[in-house]
Task: structure prediction
Amino acid sequence: MPLLTVGHRGVMGVEPENTLRSFVRADREGFDVIELDLHLSRDGALVVMHDADVDRTTDGSGPVAGKTLAELRELDAGLGERVPVFEEVVEAVSAPLQAEIKDRAAARVLAEAVERLGLHRRVTVISFHDDALRETRKLLPDIPVALVTGRSTPTAPERAVELGAPMVSCELRRLDAEVVGRCRAAGLKVISWTVNTDRDLARVRELGLDGVVTDLPAVRRAAGEAA
Result:
């Protein structure tokens, strides 16, 4: 079966990550799902950016939480792109979204946006942080959630079950057949990040995973073909 393909921060391998340009490209390339990251600005906007600081991905410096949305809008996020907010991504693309949150505060603001915009069937809330997913489940009991894991991948099956998450997104190099087997026994879907090479994709197929998170359109095309 073809694998589920998730565009990582849009298609960050070929476009500036977490920008409208990157998300629109991912949508055009035919990704099944588009992943993005959320932080709160000083004035409470759902800003699309991976890091807690703006230094790496813009021409500015300092914490996202220390700047207003207007101040963030003045930054260049790559190729002249501006830092988007969640609502703009929703309008710009048609694909389903995986929205990664880092804490309970972002969970609350995202839940309000999902309710206001009627996004219950379009957005999956994902996080490395159990508390953020617990807050999401409390506020949006019917929305899909997924647990993301890196070093903690060996504990993913049990934590996902406790959180009511039907899917885990695990770092590929930390996944093995034993962890995948426990996920399957718990009825969980398993996708992996970040899958950017033929070797990565072969490992995904060897483990019998359900999908991939990738930076590259070429991997999307290869993963979207039946093995």
User: Anything to note?
Assistant: Strands lie at 4-7, 33-40, 46-48, 97-100, 123-127, 145-149, 167-171, 189-193, 211-214. The longest strand covers residues 33-40. The CA atoms of residues 132 and 211 lie 23 Å apart. Residues 104-117 form the longest helix (14 residues).
